[in-house]
C-alpha cells in the first residue's frame, strides 16, 4: 500500500510504493536531511540498516563532506553540485537550516509528504515535497522556497531535487540527445570522475538533450532485465541535470531550472515553487521503466496541468467556457487522440481557402478526424519573413475569414485545427512595428534573428496578457478544436532593459511560468480545444508541457525509417499516445528516401497517427490503401494509445525494429515491425513477444492461425521478411 511511514524515534521517513521504497532521515541534531535508501521494497524493520551513519561517509575525506543530502544548500565543506545557492542582503552566501516540521496528506490516489526547513538567521524557509501514487513507483519531488524575512534574498541556483544512487557501483547514464530532424536519439556513457551535465540554455526544452535519464549499476541492465533508476523533469525552459560521482564514489543526479545567467530576487513574503523532478526505480530493465513512466503519465500527468502543489493560478482568471466541453474521458483515462491531417508538407505557406478545402475532402474520405491548417494562414504570411504576431486571417487568402473553411471541415465530419506560434514575432509585422520593445533584447546589441524572427518577452505581464487575449479572441471567434502551438527558435539577447538593476535575469523562468499560465487559462476557457506542443519539431517535449497539451510533434523529420530510431528514443520516457506521427509523401522531402505507403503507415501507427502528405497527388489506389489503414488504426487505437508498450526488437541493434502493444486486460496484442533492406542475405527474422499469458491461446487476426502464449514468447513470431524496407502489422486476440 502506498504511503508515508514516519518513524518519530529514528526521525526518518519511508515512502512505500508499489514495489519500491525511498527513505531518508534527520542527522546532525536535525540540521540536515540525509538520504538513506532508494530501491526495491524494504521491510520497515530493515530501513534503519540503510541509515546514513555519520562518519561512514565523511571520516576519511580530507577534501570535503560526503554526505548524501536530500536537498543541499551550498555552504561549509561542500564541493559537489548543490541544489540551493542563496545570497542574503548582508552579503552572506550560505544557507544553514534546521528541520522545523512535517505534514502528510492524501490527495485522491496520491500521498504527499511536506518537510519544512528553516534558516536560523534569515527567515528563509524551504519546503521539500514528495508525492507518490497508489499503484506506481514514481516519486515526484520539488521544493518551495519562501522568504519570511524582512529583506530580499537573491537565489542564484534553485534545483528541484537531488537523487542519490546506492553506493559502490560502476554506473551507466543513458539519455536522449538530438537536433532538428534528429530528435530523441538514445545514447549512453559511463559515469566516471568527471561531472556530466545534461542541459538546455535555450529558453526552451530543446532538441539537443531531453530532461530525462536512466542510471543503471555496472552498465549491464537491458531492455528486459536489471535495475534502473530514472528521472524526468517537468519543465519547458532552460534546465539542467547534473550527474556526478563524488570523491567517495557516490553517484547523484540533481536537476531543475538552469542557473546559467539566472537569478531570482525573492521579495519578503514571496514563495517560489520549483518544478517537479520525478524519479522511479524499476527492477525490470529499461522496458519496465518506460512502461512505468507511460502508465503514470497517462494516469497522472496528461492534461493535469501544474505538477507542483502551490501552482501559480491560471492567469488571467479564466473566462467562462466559450466552446462546448470535450466529451468526458473514459474512467480517468485521457481521451484517444484523433487521426489528424496537417497541411504543412503539402502546401507550405501557399495556403488558400479552396486549396485547404480540397485537401479536407480527401482527408475526410480516408477517415481523418481532425483537419489542421498549419503555418501560412494569417495576415502577411507568404513566407517565413513576415507575419508572426499578426494573428488574424490573411485577407487575401481568407477574404471571408476562417469560418467558411471551418464550416466546410466540420460538414465533412472533422474538427478544425490551426497552427500558431504565439511567443514569436517577425520584425516585419504590425505587432513589432507597434511594440519593438516587446522582444528580448539588450541595449546597444544586435537583436539576433533566427528564421527571421525574434522572441517576445513573455516575462512581461503586459506581453503575456496580450498573448492570452489574442489567443482567447481567436478561439472565441472561431470554432477551433485543435491548436498546434509552435516555438521555432531559441532565446538570444535575453534582456529586459526596462528592468535593468531589478533582476531581469528572472526572464528565464518567468517566461515559462507565464507560458504555462496562458495555456492553463486557455484550457480552462476553451475545454473543447486540444493542444499540440511543437518546437521546430520535437524541441519542447517534457513532463511540464505534457500536463497542458494532448500530444507533441515528435520531429519535422517524417522519413519513416529515420522515425523508427526517433520513436524508439521518444518512448523511453513518453507514451505512444502523445507521439504525433504523420504519413507523408514518398520520396521524403528531407531525406529523398522512397518508402512503401504501408511502411510509412506502420511506423506512424506506432503513435498518434496523422497524415501529412499532399493527398491531391495520391492516386486512387493510394487513397484506398490509406483509408483501409486508417480504419485499421482506429480499431487498434485503444491498444496502441492505452496499452503497455514492449520494445521487443530494436532497429538500432537488431535486423528489425518491433514494438508490441498489449491491452490492459491482456485480451489483445498488436505487433508493429519494420525492417531495412536485407543485408548479407539475412532475411528471415523472428521476434519474441512479451507480457502474454503463457497458457492462453492467441489468434492471429490476419491469418487465423492460433499460437500458444508460451510459443509466442519463447519461440517467437516469424516475420515474412524480404523486400526493401518491409513492415508488418500483426494483431493477436486471446481466444
Ligand atoms: C515548424 C514545425 C513544422 C511547421 C513549421 C511551420 O518547423 O515544426 O511542423 O509547423 O514550423 O512554419
Q: Report the bound ligands by name, code or SMILES.
A: alpha-D-galactopyranose
The coarse overall form would be globular
Mean pLDDT: 93
* Percent in helix: 10-25%
Largest sheet: 10 strands, antiparallel
Indicate the radius of gyration in whole angstroms: 26 Å
Strand content: 25-35%
**Which regions contain 5 or more consecutive residues with pLDDT less than 50?**
318-331
The helix/strand class is: alpha+beta
CA-CA gap between termini: 34 Å
Annotation field: number of helices: 13
Number of strands: 38
Report on the architecture of this protein.
The structure is a single chain. 19% of the residues lie in helices and 30% in strands. The strands form 7 sheets. Strands 6, 7, 8, 9, 11, 12, 14, 15, 19 and 20 form a 10-stranded antiparallel beta sheet that branches. The radius of gyration is 26 Å and the shape is globular. Mean pLDDT is 93; it is low at 318-331. Residues 344, 374-375, 419, 486, 488, 534, 536-537, 553, 556 line the site of alpha-D-galactopyranose.
Provide key terms for this protein.
10-stranded antiparallel sheet; single chain; alpha+beta; 8-stranded parallel beta barrel; 735 residues; binds alpha-D-galactopyranose; globular; 13 helices
Amino acid at each position: 500500500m502506498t504511503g508515508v511511514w514516519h518513524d518519530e524515534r529514528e526521525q526518518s521517513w519511508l515512502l512505500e510504493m508499489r514495489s519500491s521504497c525511498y527513505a531518508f532521515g534527520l542527522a546532525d541534531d536535525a540540521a540536515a536531511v540525509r538520504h538513506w535508501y532508494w530501491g526495491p521494497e524494504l521491510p520497515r524493520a530493515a530501513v534503519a540498516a540503510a541509515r546514513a551513519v555519520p562518519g561512514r561517509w565523511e571520516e576519511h575525506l580530507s577534501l570535503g563532506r560526503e554526505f548524501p543530502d536530500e536537498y543541499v544548500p551550498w555552504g561549509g565543506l561542500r564541493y559537489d553540485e548543490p541544489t540551493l545557492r542563496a545570497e542574503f542582503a548582508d552579503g552572506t552566501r550560505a544557507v544553514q537550516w534546521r528541520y522545523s516540521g512535517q505534514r502528510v496528506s492524501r490527495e485522491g490516489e496520491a500521498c504527499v509528504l511536506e518537510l519544512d526547513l528553516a534558516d536560523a538567521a534569515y527567515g528563509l524557509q524551504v519546503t521539500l515535497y514528495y508525492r507518490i501514487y497508489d499503484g506506481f513507483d514514481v516519486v515526484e519531488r520539488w521544493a518551495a522556497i519562501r522568504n519570511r524575512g524582512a529583506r530580499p534574498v537573491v537565489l542564484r541556483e534553485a534545483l528541484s531535487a537531488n537523487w542519490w544512487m546506492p553506493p559502490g557501483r560502476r554506473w551507466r547514464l543513458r539519455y536522449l540527445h538530438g537536433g532538428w530532424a534528429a530528435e530523441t536519439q538514445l545514447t549512453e556513457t559511463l559515469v566516471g570522475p568527471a561531472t556530466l551535465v545534461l542541459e538546455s540554455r535555450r529558453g526552451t526544452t530543446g532538441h539537443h538533450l531531453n530532461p530525462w535519464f536512466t542510471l543503471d549499476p555496472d552498465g549491464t541492465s537491458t531492455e528486459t532485465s536489471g535495475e534502473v533508476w530514472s528521472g524526468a523533469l517537468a519543465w519547458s525552459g532552460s534546465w539542467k541535470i547534473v550527474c556526478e560521482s563524488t570523491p567517495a564514489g557516490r553517484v547523484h543526479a540533481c536537476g531543475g531550472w538552469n542557473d546559467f545567467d539566472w537569478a531570482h530576487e525573492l521579495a519578503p513574503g514571496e514563495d517560489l515553487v520549483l518544478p517537479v523532478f520525478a524519479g522511479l526505480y524499476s527492477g525490470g530493465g529499461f522496458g519496465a521503466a518506460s512502461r512505468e513512466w507511460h502508465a503514470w503519465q497517462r494516469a497522472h500527468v496528461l492534461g493535469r496541468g501544474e505538477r507542483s502543489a502551490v501552482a501559480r493560478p491560471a492567469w488571467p482568471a479564466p473566462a467562462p467556457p466559450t466552446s462546448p466541453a470535450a466529451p468526458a474521458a473514459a474512467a480517468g483515462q485521457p481521451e484517444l487522440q484523433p487521426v489528424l491531417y496537417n497541411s504543412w508538407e503539402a502546401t507550405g505557406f501557399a495556403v488558400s481557402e479552396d486549396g485547404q478545402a480540397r485537401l479536407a475532402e480527401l482527408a475526410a474520405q480516408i477517415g481523418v478526424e481532425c483537419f489542421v491548417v498549419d503555418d501560412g494562414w494569417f495576415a502577411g504570411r507568404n513566407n517565413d519573413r513576415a507575419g508572426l504576431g499578426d494573428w488574424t486571417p490573411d485577407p487575401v487568402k481568407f477574404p471571408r475569414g476562417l469560418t467558411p473553411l471551418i464550416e466546410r471541415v466540420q460538414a465533412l465530419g472533422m474538427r478544425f485545427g490551426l497552427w500558431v506560434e504565439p511567443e514569436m514575432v517577425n520584425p516585419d509585422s504590425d505587432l513589432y512595428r507597434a511594440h519593438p520593445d516587446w522582444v528580448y533584447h539588450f541595449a546597444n546589441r544586435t537583436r539576433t534573428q533566427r528564421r527571421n524572427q525574434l522572441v517576445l518577452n513573455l516575462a512581461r505581464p503586459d506581453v503575456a496578457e496580450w498573448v492570452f487575449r489574442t489567443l482567447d479572441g481567436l478561439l472565441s471567434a472561431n470554432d477551433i478544436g485543435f491548436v498546434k502551438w509552435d516555438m521555432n527558435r531559441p532565446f538570444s539577447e535575453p534582456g529586459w532593459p526596462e528592468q535593468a538593476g531589478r533582476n531581469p535575469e528572472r526572464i528565464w523562468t518567468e517566461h515559462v511560468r507565464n507560458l504555462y499560465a496562458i495555456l492553463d487559462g486557455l484550457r480552462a476557457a476553451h475545454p473543447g480545444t486540444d493542444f499540440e506542443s511543437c518546437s521546430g519539431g520535437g524541441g519542447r517535449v517534457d513532463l511540464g508541457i505534457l500536463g497542458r497539451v494532448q500530444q507533441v510533434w515528435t520531429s519535422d523529420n517524417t522519413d519513416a525509417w529515420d522515425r523508427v530510431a526517433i520513436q524508439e528514443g521518444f518512448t523511453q520516457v513518453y507514451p505512444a499516445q502523445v507521439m504525433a506521427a504523420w504519413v507523408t509523401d514518398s520520396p521524403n522531402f528531407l531525406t529523398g528516401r522512397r518508402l512503401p505507403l504501408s511502411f510509412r503507415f506502420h511506423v506512424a501507427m506506432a503513435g498518434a497517427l496523422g497524415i501529412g502528405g499532399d493527398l491531391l497527388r495520391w492516386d486512387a489506389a493510394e487513397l484506398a490503401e490509406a483509408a483501409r489503414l486508417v480504419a485499421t488504426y482506429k480499431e487498434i487505437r485503444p491498444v496502441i494509445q492505452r496499452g503497455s508498450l514492449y520494445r521487443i526488437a530494436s532497429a538500432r541493434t537488431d535486423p528489425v525494429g518491433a514494438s508490441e502493444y498489449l491491452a490492459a486486460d491482456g485480451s489483445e496484442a498488436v505487433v508493429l515491425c519494420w525492417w531495412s533492406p536485407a543485408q548479407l542475405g539475412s532475411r528471415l527474422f523472428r521476434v519474441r513477444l512479451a507480457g502474454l499469458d503463457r497458457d492462453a491461446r492467441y489468434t492471429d487476426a490476419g491469418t487465423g492461425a492460433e499460437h500458444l502464449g508460451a510459443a509466442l514468447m519463447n519461440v517467437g513470431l516469424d516475420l515474412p521478411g524480404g523486400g526493401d524496407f518491409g513492415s508488418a502489422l500483426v494483431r493477436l486476440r486471446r481466444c
